[in-house]
Design goal:
Layout (H helix, E strand, L loop, with lengths): L13 E11 L3 E8 L2 E8 L9 H19 L12 E7 L4 E7 L6 H5 L13 H20 L2 E2 L8 E6 L2 E6 L6 E2 L16 H4 L7 H17 L10 H10 L12 H10 L10 H8 L8 H4 L8
Antiparallel strand pairs: 1-2, 2-3, 3-5, 4-5, 6-9, 7-8
Length: 305
Amino acid sequence: MRSSAKLELSLKDLIIDEEKELGEGSSSRVYLGTYQKKLVAVKVARSNSRLNITLKDSVHWLEIEDEVLGQLANNTEEVHTGLVGYYGAWFDYSKNDFFIAIEYANAGTLKNWIFKEDEIKDLPNFNWGLAYRIVYDVAMGLYWLHKFNFIHGDIKPANILLNKEAGQLHGKICDFGFTKSVDKIGKDETYSPIYTAPEVLLKYLNLHTKSDIYSFACVLFEIAKQAGIYESFASLDSLKDYITAKNYRENIPSDTPKKIAHLITWGWEKEPENRPTAERLKDELSTPMENISEELEKHTPITYR
């Protein structure tokens, strides 16, 4: 029995090269493939006994991705700025075949780049000119998700693909397995605690658009530091106390461009209503890095001791 995909793949046009594994996550493996003669990444559901993830769980998350990306694919091409391109899904329960095909990103992930994890041929060294374009793309991706009433729920460097085009690096938000529609939010587990907003960690609010903004600020911080945020914390409980009860954050590196430092400070405000919207973020980032608006100027970084 096949389930109904939002956007169904034509299998005769799809070739999966299982000898070319691009990566793996907790619930899937990703292979290089071609679809209608274009390079694609094919995400295949799998179980994971170590993490107690069943195949049913993995398929559920792929179905969510198909639902979200399928809806967005039906809208204008402009929507795809900052979001990974989508080709479709195939769910066949009789054969245990479950996969989706997404845009192939030729430069790995933002995590690979800023943490220097992988040596990808011809990938440029870090510089703020390239990074600024990437964070603009991600802000645009969040803007489109929120505009269509979706909350990503797991914004982090590992979920931002990079594509190298004409000497530029472009950011593409991916991994929509935890994405929720604004009107279907319920009680959620915290999937990536270090990027999770204080109010969600404390469970007095569910995931919401401003929790995505908090996560985006943490990503900006990691770009500025070129290392992980809150690396010194040994436990989730100590981290919760640090960013909730004490309302502390890490000190932003002194060589961070002023505009980025102010955006981080604004984005990780403790109270959700004090954080900018995704639309405001993309508007701020659409101007040169030297341009700082009157509102952004107010959000001066704090030094924590």
